[in-house]
Amino acid sequence: MKISCPKCHKPGISALRACWLGPALPTRCKECGTKIAPPYWSILFVLPFIAAYLLVSFFIEGQIQAFFIGLFAGMAMQSLFAIAPLQSRE
Description:
- This protein has 90 residues and is of the alpha+beta class.
- It has helices at residues 15-19, 47-59, 63-82; strands at 2-4, 11-14, 27-28, 35-37, 87-88.
- It has one domain (2-88).
- The protein is built from three helices and five strands; from the N terminus they run ββαββααβ.
- Strand 1 and strand 2 (11-14) form a beta hairpin.
- Helix 2 packs antiparallel against helix 3.
- It is elongated, with a radius of gyration of 16 Å.
């Protein structure tokens, strides 16, 4: 599965690479060579999950804590990947 480039609209980014994209970690489209990354404001999607992590770490202990921390980390990554649109940086 490939993600389409916002500039040339061709599938130029692998889904695995798109999972690791961030505002400071752009990639290049394999079709047109444009630098692509989520917008800088997309980091705001992570703030609710950081707050949930802090609440869990103070009130829950043991193995269930590790489960919730992993769950919140996965949800934060998914929100960046699914909600934030990609944009070209050139």
